[in-house]
Amino acid sequence: MTHSIAVRNVRKFISHPLSTNCAEIFKRSNHALIGISPFNSRFSDEYINKLIEWALHTFDDVSVLLAGKEAANLLEALGTPKGKAERKVRKEVSRNRRSAEKALKEHGGNVNSIHTFSDFNDNYAYNSMRAEAEHIFLNETPFRNACLEMSHAAILGRARGTNIDIDQISNDMLNIAVEYVIAELPFFIGGAEILGTQETVLVYHKPWELGEQIVRNDFSIKMKPNQGYLMVQEIEDLS
Fold it and tell me: Quick one: 57 exposed, middle or buried, by C-beta within 10 A (0-12, 13-18, 19+)?
């Protein structure tokens, strides 16, 4: 399932819904939740601007999701002291926020629709889904292994994004960094409920392997019926 959408002179993106249900939610285009990762060269000011512009022309409503404090776990896993890791994350998330605010203002979006994981610490839906994920992580080996594999990939990605050389990833490193995976998972399985919207698609620029396994029913944890996932890729030239 692949869709290409362009409106007026808006930059074109090609989209890949993760499932048939995701495609149906995308077709209705009620709401998009754009995921922006810290320390990722993909999310330049220019790219964030173009992606938000596209989303605002494609969906009735758009929110932006930034990393929370758990992103510091990835840096800690790489040996960065806790205090320094937290400062680096705050600085990077602030940069992402400024880029998103600028794009939302420029293209008619709502600047109050920018959120971080940490904004939902007191959100019942978020906490319920996070507790479910933590329980399954502790009790289902296949799910735990899949989360740790995502943690491994996240550590490598942060190492590249922060120019840190890494020779080996230990189990301790994986268990520190997996908190980031667990923290973001509720937005994949039930972002609409967390945000209080009828339905939404989480928009990101690459596949999410753990999500693909969830959609295949490999684990007991499930994606909510009103939640979708959409991988988007910018089309540089369609001529």
Answer: middle
Condensed to tens digits (0 to 9), the pLDDT of residues 132-178 reads 999 999 999 999 999 999 998 888 877 776 666 676 788 888 998 89
Tokens (6 digits) for 173 = 């490193």
186 CB contacts (<8 Å, ≥6 apart)? Answer: 120, 125, 126, 129, 130, 133, 194
**Phi, psi (degrees; rounded to nearest 5) at 32:** -125, 140
Superfamily of domain 3-234: Cyclodipeptide synthase (3.40.50.11710)
Q: pTM for this one?
A: 0.90
Residue 184 three-state SS = helix
Rounded (10°) angle between helices 171-195 and 124-139: 140
Contact 4, 14 (CB under 8 A): yes
- Residue bearing tokens 């969830």: 214
- What positions carry a catalytic annotation? 37
Residue 81 and residue 45: Cα distance in Å, rounded?
A: 28
Which residue's entry shows tokens 């890949």?
Answer: 16
Is the sign of the CA dihedral 36, 97, 44, 49 positive or negative? positive
pLDDT of residue 35: 97
Which one, of 239, 144, 236, 199, lies nearest residue 17 by Cα? 199
Of the CA atoms within 13 Å of residue 99, those in its CB half-sphere come to 24
